[in-house]
Amino acid sequence: MPQAVPRIAPAARRRQRPPVTPGRALGPNDFAFYRGYLQGLDLGRLADRYLDKGLDLRLVRSQLLWIEEALARGIKRLATRPRSGGSGEERMLTESAWLALIHAPAGESVTARQTRQRRLLRALDALQPMLLTRPTAADAVSGWFASAIAARLADAGWQTLGALQAAVGAGGQGWYRRVPGIGARTARQMEIWLQEQGAHIGAMAAVLAPGPLESLRAPGARAEVRAIQGWLGGYQPEGGHTWRAYRTQAERFLLWTLHARGKSLATVTAEDGAAYIAFLADPQPSAQWVGRRGTPRDRHDWRPFEGPLSPASIRHARKILSTLYGWLIEQGHARANPFEVLSLPTDGDTPRIQVARSFTEPQWRFLLRHVSSLPADDPRAARLTFMLHLAHASGLRISEQAVATVGHLTWNGHWTLAVPGPKPRLIPLPEAVIDALRGHLAARGLGRGVESLPAATPLIGRVKTGDEGGALSVAQIGAIWKRYFAQAATLAGAEDDAAQLAQASAHWMRHTAGAHAVARGVALEVVQQQFGHASLDTTSMYVLAA
Question: Does 92 lie in the same domain as 238?
Answer without folding.
Answer: no
